[in-house]
Design brief:
Shape: globular
Largest sheet: 8 strands, antiparallel, barrel
Strand order of the largest sheet: 1-2-7-5-6-4-3-10
Number of strands: 10
Amino acid sequence: MRILVALLAFLVLVPASAAQQRPAPGMIRVKIETSEGAIVLALDAKRAPKTTANFLAYVDDGRLDGTGFYRASRRTGNPKFGFVQGGIASDARRVLPSPPLEPTNVTGIRHTDGAISMAHGVNIDGATGNFSIMVGDNPSLDARGTGRGGYAAFGHVVGGMDVVRKILAKPTGGGRGPMRGQMIQPGPVKILRAVRLDGAPQPTGQVKPWQISPTPWIQPN
């Protein structure tokens, strides 16, 4: 009888566990290994294909390896919510061509809790190699009609939100402009490695100057 009960429990649990390991159709998972722990993302290649392809190019080339989470933007009056920002910062050696903006009113992917979104590059209608992860909903980052395209959300966290919250709680200071008082102190949370978990890597094949002549990655002021 005990063996039968154990077998039934096994049959119930295994499919659920297996389902957690498989991404939903159109989603590609990426693991970001940080000095505070791992974060697993599910990127929506179906609804935000260009933004997802851009992020995967940075991952597959190793352009995010050795960078960091440098910003913790906490909401005034409720510091447990806001967003964290990381990536290549201003390291021009790692930059790839910017994709066109895929706004939230086109993709339907909103800046809800756990969403990942690309930061703007020099062109506000594009993005480079910096990104943010939401802690709580941040609807002010969504598109708001003509001329206010917002930011391109393109997936969400499926594991490691505890790590994201830990990063948001880090001491902050310094910074300028909209980042004033939001730079993680005494330094960034390191991104040790970023790897895709689904499908084969597709590196760009472009030169990697930060590896040819390595210099320390520096977070923005």
